[in-house]
Design goal:
It contains six helices and nine strands; from the N terminus they run E-E-E-H-E-E-E-H-H-E-H-E-H-E-H. By secondary structure, the chain is an alpha/beta fold. The strands form two sheets. Strands 4-6-7-8-3-9 form a six-stranded mixed beta sheet, sandwiched between helices. It has a three-stranded antiparallel beta sheet with strand order 2-1-5, covered by helices on one side. Helix 4 links the parallel strand 7 and strand 8.
Length: about 230
């Protein structure tokens, strides 16, 4: 598990939410939320470098890479997996056409639950977690994991996929998605950490979402009542 990270020199210390403060991580879900340039990827790539993940994949006891600035951290040495989901979106958790191929994910019922479990198992098989001892609780570093999918898939990921993964992994995820904010207010992520990396950015995003919903409600066409054929 990665417990904390603290930048001591270089450009990250000039970022609003980073500076020289100690950034602490919980053992479940940790969300890095902010606009471009706020430090999300900097934090993820720094953690990947110091744990020996290189450009991607498992740390596998690899030697830490070299940082262009000074930093301190605490890591217990357990396995870490890093994926740059922004650059390698075709390898990400939810494929672009996954919802189209599995329409039952958009509804309720046993088939939907089965498909979600199938997707979680697919993720774990791809990460080869079956090779890890049961006592290990590895860390997944996921940079912009939901950047290439639409709102429906983002909702699925944050509401249904994150929960089972957080039982087995420490997750550190960067995102632009507003769903973690909504789920924390709904208590689904109340035990987890959301680090907002720009001043008032969360409030601005929630306000704009409210405007979009109001616009949709004002402009949508009334539903046509279906009448039985004579």
């Amino acid at each position: 598990m990665i417990s904390w990270l603290q930048f001591q020199s270089g450009y990250p210390t000039g970022l609003w939410a980073i500076g020289r403060k100690r950034i602490t991580f919980g053992d479940r879900v940790n969300v890095l939320f902010g606009p471009n340039g706020s430090g999300k990827t900097t934090i993820i790539k720094t953690l990947a470098t110091i744990t020996g993940c290189g450009e991607g994949g498992w740390s596998d006891g690899g030697a830490p890479g070299e940082l262009p600035f000074k930093a301190a951290w605490q890591w217990d040495g357990r396995p870490v997996f890093y994926q740059d989901c922004y650059t390698h979106s075709e390898q990400s958790f939810i494929g672009v056409d996954y919802l189209e191929q599995n329409a039952h994910l958009r509804s309720s019922g046993e088939k939907r639950i089965g498909l979600i479990n199938e997707l979680v198992n697919h993720i774990e098989d791809r990460f080869l977690t079956y090779k890890l001892p049961r006592t290990e609780r590895p860390t997944l570093l996921l940079d912009e994991v939901d950047n290439h999918v639409g709102l429906a898939a983002q909702s699925l990921f944050w509401s249904d996929i994150i929960a089972p993964l957080s039982k087995k992994y420490q997750l550190i995820i960067s995102t632009h998605s507003i769903f973690p904010l909504l789920l924390q207010r709904d208590n689904s992520l109340r035990r987890d950490t959301i680090l907002v990396l720009a001043p008032q950015y969360d409030g601005v995003c929630l306000s704009e979402l409210g405007k979009a919903i109001d616009y949709y409600n004002a402009k949508r066409l009334p539903e046509v009542e279906q009448t039985p054929e004579s």
